[in-house]
Amino acid sequence: MRTFDNSTSSTDLFRTPRVFQRMLVTGGAGFIGANFVRLVEQEWPQCEVVVIDKLTYAGNRENLAGTKAKLVEGDINDAQLVDDLVGNTDVIVHFAAESHNDNSLKDPSPFITTNIMGTFTLLEAARKNGVYFHHVSTDEVFGDLEIGAPTKFTESTAYAPSSPYSASKAGSDHLVRAWARSFGVPVTVSNCSNNYGPYQHIEKFIPRQITNILDGRTPKLYGTGEQVRDWIHVDDHNLAVLDILSHGEFGETYNIGADQKDINNGEVIELICELMGRPGDYEHVADRPGHDQRYAMDATKLREELGWSPRYTNLREGLEQTIAWYTNNRSWWSASKESVESTYASQGQ
Ligand code: NAD
Ligand code: TDX
After folding, report:
1. In this protein, which residues make up the domain named NAD(P)-binding (predicted)?
2. CA–CA separation, 139 and 155 (whole Å)
């Protein structure tokens, strides 16, 4: 069992950074995980990365093409495999999850199995092997805020998840904190707002609209489109995770958000249509049941205690880069477009 020095104050930006030689990334063949693996190679080239990923519909080997990461195809619920991998690493960075709200409304079952049971399996391995565990979570655990209100979620906002997805993530967050308090497992937790950028599955809002336009389809806006999301570029999310890994305080939670001015879904779709030369060309479709109205993250703690700030402060520029990526990587998404859209069509979306 290793011991960890956590004696300095969390406000000490100059605390000796933790340095890792070996890292286990769960869900590293998915959107945020694959971008994270690429970032670790750039920023921490000494670190050997092993990825465990079940390669569900959302995972893709190609997302790791050209990286040095070793991909182990496997389930985070496979206790023996997980224990073997955790016994040979210095840190676990846990991204693996079922991640799409709309899917959780059709069938919550894999959300419970992966997000709750899978996290439990990893925590038990972390406990047994004395390994540091970073848990990647979401702003959705806090429920939603009123549109137009000045309020934001802070780390002490009470949990009030709305969907099976967000409830399963909330459950996993609670497990992580309990394993820290009851068993002394060294953990950190991050809760981030909506990500966008390269390699995001085309079921999600922004890549769905970009690929709709590229594929000659009409972009689809749920309901009135007045819901607000707090968009952050995936690299900014992952840079914050690196900051937490290197000098975050064990047992602490950090909110991650880019402090964008409130922008609703209708305005985002308008912007995408404009940037792609099809201004105003989108349609309203059936709303999401239980649709969360507004998310907004207060990331003051992360900024002040760990010195993080976002690199992408202009959504228009981030979207231009993302549109260019989907335009230049048609083969990455085109094979799945028809089936994603026919599933949505069967739901009136
Ligand atoms: P994603 O769906 O793109 O990727 C998830 C990955 O996990 C896939 O590669 C999938 O194959 C893998 N996976 C699923 N079940 C598994 C299992 N049982 N065992 C092993 N691997 C499994 O998701 P994402 O958008 O990259 O999200 C990653 C994490 O970040 C999730 O925990 C999510 O809750 C969190 N998060 C996402 C966002 C966002 O905007 N996308 C925002 C905040 C937090
Ligand atoms: O076609 C669409 N049209 C539309 O209007 C889709 C797919 C979505 N929407 C709306 C619903 C949401 O208000 O856009 C908003 C964003 O939808 P999603 O991309 O599905 O994201 P969201 O439900 O907000 O959750 C995301 O952010 C938090 C991620 O998928 C989660 O994994 C993360 O935890």
Report:
1. 24-321
2. 10
